[in-house]
Amino acid sequence: MLSRKALAIASLSTIVCSMAGGALAGEAFKSSQFLTYSAEARQSYITSSAMMAGLIASQNNPRQGKCIDDWIARQSAQGYASVVEVMKRYPDHHPSAVIVAVLDKACGSFKY
Questions:
Q1: Most buried of 49, 105, 106, 110, CB within 10 angstroms?
Q2: pTM score, two decimals?
Q3: Interatomic CA distance for residues 69 and 84, integer angstroms
Q4: For residue 10, is it within any domain?
């Protein structure tokens, strides 16, 4: 079975590769665009982003890392409705910025 770290790195690599085309073309990736993706694609992106944030947090603040892991378990069952709602309110923000802001509010600051 893949370790959490290996899975997070693989997921992040997939996200970066799939999103790089638009970024290289000078297009800003916005939540409004993200919200047009299928529910499955959105869920995968948010899970991967949250897992990476959890991995970083666990290296700096194990309590925060556990909080993020628990948050993922709760929110994924609901399709990350809380994140999607914030993205709807802030359609011009990058999806990753919204995800980090929601995690920051739920589990504490990422300032280490």
A1: 49
A2: 0.76
A3: 18
A4: yes
Q: How many domains does the chain have?
A: 1
* Residue 93 tokens, joined: 């923000």
pLDDT confidence of residue 5 = 59
Q: Is residue 87 part of a domain?
A: yes
- Confidence (pLDDT) at 25: 46
Q: What is the pLDDT of residue 15?
A: 55
Residues of the chain with pLDDT under 50: 1-2, 20-26
On whether the CB atoms of residues 35 and 29 are closer than 8 A, the answer is no
Residue-number span of the structural domain to which 52 is assigned: 4-107
Residue 35's nearest CA partner among 43, 23, 26, 25 is 43
Exposure of 43 in the CB half-sphere (CA atoms within 13 A): 11
How far, in Å, CA of 84 to CA of 34, rounded? 9
Residue 112 resides in a domain? no
